[in-house]
Amino acid sequence: MSELLENKTSIELTARMIRMGHEPHSVIICGERGLGKKTLARHLAKQLLCERGDGVPCNSCRSCRLIDKGVHPDVIIAQPSDTGNYRVEDIREIASSAYIAPNESKYKVYIIPDLDASVQTLDKIQNIMLKLIEEPPDSAVIILTARSKEIFLETIISRTLLLEAEPVSFACAQAHLIDKGYDKAIAEEAVRRNGANIGKCLEYAENDELRSIADAALEASAAIASGDEYGLLRVLSVGDYKKDEFITLLSFMQRITRDATRLKAGAITPHPYSSKVCAELGQAYSQRRLVDIYNVLGEHINRAAGNCLVSALVNSLCAGLMTQE
Hints:
Blueprint: H1 8-19, E1 26-30, H2 37-49, H3 62-69, E2 75-77, H4 88-97, E3 108-112, H5 122-134, E4 140-146, H6 154-157, E5 161-164, H7 170-179, H8 184-194, H9 198-206, H10 208-226, H11 229-238, H12 243-264, H13 275-284, H14 287-305, H15 310-322
Helix pairs in contact: 1-2, 2-3, 4-5, 7-8, 8-9, 10-11, 10-12, 10-13, 11-15, 12-13, 12-14, 14-15
């Protein structure tokens, strides 16, 4: 399955378990957004349900074809609300239906993605799922995905197979974008600015507005490097950013600062966001101050995510970023 690209460690582990007859019944897949957690979850469903039965999907049997089309009756993907929260009654229904025999396969596979986004109902959902995970029926497999395992109860983690979605190499990510038909220059820029995260690179290549925000982050970072407080304030204010756009802007700035810190420390960084601006930041500030800048950006990302008005954050952000050593 070419879209998986990497994740070989997880794929080989689950294939080996299936061949040995030790199929996992509860799985957590962790990794940052864009690394293919849901793709890996669907691949695991194919490993479990493929008619060949050896943990390596044939991609041609009825089960594999139905999973690829998203219509397999025994693969159930839970859907959150528009806010990202899962409805408690929907999860209760999953927990109940898991004890009903599959329609046509050996297993019913339930995929509940992006649990970290279900902030309001996360605790209730986990408590509902706990009994099912503690005593799973032989014919059901539960696959949960999230950015970090830290959101899960220890009692759930201890009873599940934990898989980590793996980042790909820069060369692999760039080649993948070129194979998708994107210009080589855009592909290279997408990879440098998104750390070879395939999902984010594809989103970047497709989205003019996202690329404009990434350019603004570079301009703002250059202003920090030159001590140009007015220039920084102009970038942060003129954009008239909404909350999500503001968080994206600061996240790009964090990536620039992180690369500058690595270069300052002498670490090998073959694909920095911008060699020029990262070098300028390293010349202007000590490694300790660069870490402070990174943390200030992170603090304001958290404040923006906590529904603090962007307009109320701009001045305090500028003050924190332009404080002299």
